[in-house]
Amino acid sequence: MHISGQASATSLPIGSDADLAWVRQHVRQCAAQLGFGLVQQTKLVTAASELARNTLVHGGGGHAEITPLDNGLTRGLRMRFADQGPGIRDLELAMTDGYTSGGGLGLGLSGAKRLVHEFRVDTEPGRGTTVTAVAWVAQVPASRKGLQ
Amino acid sequence: MNHPVPGQPVQVPVLALGDVLLVSLQGELHDGMAEQLQQDITSRISTSRVTGVVIDISGVDIVDSFLGRVLAEIASTARLLAARTVLAGMRPAVAITLVELGLTLPGLITALDVDRAMEVLSQGGS
Fold first, then answer.
1. CA-CA 20 to 30 A from A53: which of A12, A23, A66, B86?
2. Which branch of life, at top level (chain B) (predicted)?
3. What was the pLDDT predicted at B29?
């Protein structure tokens, strides 16, 4: 379903809070280039920040893979965050608002899911976690009555 | 002008205007800087006659749950030390994102800009 466009994936390491800043900056640049509006850009960068911090804090570090998408109708951005940490034992619990194991507010996974269009968590205890989030540029129905 | 390089942390300056502390956050804020700021503000409140804190976030692109938690904790700590905190200048896109994220920061006083935040503090009460 996702047909990758001309641009290729960028992989960024996540090993410190400075790396989180790089991930945010890269996602913002990609989102702006792909034509995301300001609110969507802000949502994407916020989701990236939440997920990258999960990778750092809960996964012990890992990497982010940022890929521009083009499905023929609109453009999108796929963000994949992978770690080889302990994995998530109870995914349903981890996806619950307010549940936290890391001293945060417990909004990381559940909140990030609300900020994007597609969201998927692959995890296995002892093997690590990969979170994939995809957002598409909003398709505003063009009003062209006057032009036709 | 280029954005500051994200790899280079800069300490956030805390200015004193009479009995109000003014903190202006800009651009990328590292987690460590946010925690340092929390300590700086708390120690400034406890050692000087500060009755109010204004945190200007008009230059902040995003507030995630970490920064949101730090801001809420600064306000809670300041309140326990007899100072009121006003969060000023949140961008509309940030407000929309925070609500969707589920982080509505109840209990935090807000103002549209620094001028109005100073007015809120000068009026007293809550």
1. B86
2. Bacteria
3. 81
Say yes or no for a CB contact (<8 Å) between B62 and A45: yes
What is the per-residue pLDDT for A140?
A: 64
| Domain coverage including residue A84 | 10-138
The pLDDT averaged over each successive group of 10 residues in chain A (148 residues) is 62 94 96 96 96 92 96 94 89 76 67 94 92 89 52
Amino acid at A6: Q
Residues of chain B with Cβ-Cβ distance to A20 below 8 Å are: 30-31
Assigned domain for A5 exists: no
Q: What CATH number did the domain enclosing A88 receive? A: 3.30.565.10
Question: A63 to chain B nearest CA, in Å?
Answer: 17
Task: Give the ipTM of the model, two decimals please.
Answer: 0.86
Distance CA B93, CA B91 (A): 6
Give the 3-state secondary structure of A99-144. Answer: CCCCCCCCCHHHHHHHHCCEEEEEEECCCEEEEEEEEECCCCCCCC
CB atoms B30 and A17 under 8 Å: yes
Total domains in the fold of chain A: 1
Which domains, from first to last, does chain B contain? Answer: 14-111 (3.30.750.24)
Q: In what order do the strands lie in the sheet with A128-136?
A: A10-14, A62-70, A75-83, A128-136, A118-124
